[in-house]
Amino acid sequence: MSLLLDAIRTEGRVADGLLKVDRFLNHRVDPEVLAEVGEGIGAIVGDWDADLLLTAEASGIAPALATSLATGLPSIYAKKFVGPGKRRSFGREVSSPTKGFEYRVEVARHLIEPGQRVAVVDDFLSGGRTAVALVEIAREAGAEVVGGAFVVEKAWMPGRGRMEAIGCTARSLVTVASIEHGEVVFADA
Amino acid sequence: MSLLLDAIRTEGRVADGLLKVDRFLNHRVDPEVLAEVGEGIGAIVGDWDADLLLTAEASGIAPALATSLATGLPSIYAKKFVGPGKRRSFGREVSSPTKGFEYRVEVARHLIEPGQRVAVVDDFLSGGRTAVALVEIAREAGAEVVGGAFVVEKAWMPGRGRMEAIGCTARSLVTVASIEHGEVVFADA
What we know:
Two copies of one chain form a homodimer.
Chain A: H1 2-11, E1 13-15, E2 18-20, E3 28-29, H2 31-47, E4 52-56, H3 61-71, E5 75-81, E6 89-96, E7 101-108, E8 117-125, H4 129-140, E9 144-154, H5 159-165, E10 170-180, E11 183-186
Parallel strand pairs in A: 4-5, 4-8, 8-9, 9-10
Antiparallel strand pairs in A: 1-2, 5-7, 6-7, 10-11
């Protein structure tokens, strides 16, 4: 993950205690970094023998689709919105600590088939709320969740623990151990 | 565009007079169709000598990123939300006839550089409101908009006229002439 690490080091910004990747991953997207992310997550979901990727709009779409293009696996991105649930959808409420409101993630029922091997994909594993909601949606649809694959994991946040608590393994391309004095400290550095 | 045409014919659905592509393009994403879309839009923006792609979340992200991966050009996806504008952003209000409310599209100011050759990319050219907002944002940033490239154009809608009215050319991979009795009629068929 050399391009991704370099991008986080040189173009990542720490603002309000959060790592911002909007210069290369979730607002502006760098094609070389994205291709590397697709290969990296592709290797993880290949290990799991996944046959479907599940993410949520909007910031999960880039890593999921890059993985789809690298592996040939289809992706589903859950719709995210504020308001009541729709008929004919699998959905969950998610509270967002950074945005301060509840929203819903939903997947149309006709898109997930029972028995599919679903890998959850997202840009960040942090609080884990969106990832847990996606796992629950896939399981409600009768799919088998083979794991969650993430671009960046924040090791001090409860995301991994929340995934493990519902019996779901997690792997990440890069793990940030901490943010100290506005600087990113990598777990492997 | 044989895979895209086949997908629209076999997996597209007409509901409430709208063409739904949620089985292969904007909810579930088929990697083979997406790769073809990236190559097709890549050829268009290559003709224009674009150096940056600009789209809006969420449904524009898939075609824009596929084009980025096919061409090596970076993409920016504008953030879409309801509420007041943010500082340090270029933004526009957009009214959505299908969703019935106004929302904002915004791009952080530091991401577009004056003089860049920007191609607007989106899944549909229909009413054209989002595309026009993106053109205005890019121009406000001092960029040169070289055109709008779309996956599917609805020929009976005012999108193309609205783009031309602000001096912006438009090209589409597939043009739907009409929807008659719940069936899609292609312009070239």
